[in-house]
Structure formats: structure tokens, C-alpha cells
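Hi there, hope your week has been kind to you so far. Thanks so much in advance, here it is:
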Amino acid sequence: MATVEELMQRNLLGVFNERDAARRHEAIAAVYAEDVLFQDPEGLVRGRDQIDAKVSALLDGAPDFAFRPTALVRVSGDLGVLPWGFGPAGGAPVVTGTDIALVEDGRIVRLHTLLDSGSS
């Protein structure tokens, strides 16, 4: 069973950073519960398919951008926190934020993304 730290890393790099749809689909199945809830400033989506659609649209809209962690994952029991940056590969991030995930039975059941002030 994956640890909270492993799930947080795979969420950022294996899901939100994965442009290959087949590999992203595999990561989504391994990382999230079927009825996962994901909330960010744009709203709430439910389920793996809606997360996949959201990630696909995000990456399609920023073809040269990549996510990268900006600090280590912090864990408290079943809760994980991971700060990240999103911007041109090899360049400074354009947007920064933090993912907060609740894990049950080795899968993320709730994921929240907070954007840092000043991020667009």
C-alpha cells in the first residue's frame, strides 16, 4: 500500500504532470479512490474521470509548462501537504500553490489545491 508521501508525489508528477493519457489514466487509478473529491479555486469535481478531464484541459492549455514540488511532502497521519510550482520547464513558476490530500485505504479520497496569493 502506498504511503501518503508517495501518493502526494505521484499525484503531482504522475497525474498532474503526465501528458501521456494512458500513463496518466494508470496513475489516476492507483492514486485516487473512485469517488474522489477534488476542489480548487475553480470549483469541485468528483471522480477519477472528472479529474482526468480537468488535468487534460490544464495541460493542453499550457503545453510548455510543468509542475514541480517546491518543498518536501509533510505528513500528519492520513493527511499530506505538498507545495508546488507550475511554469515553463526549466524556468520560474508562474503559479504556486499547495496540495492537501486526505488518504484512506491507500488512496486519495479528498484533494484540495490552494493557490498562493498573487498567483493567477
About this structure: Helices lie at 4-15, 21-31, 48-61.
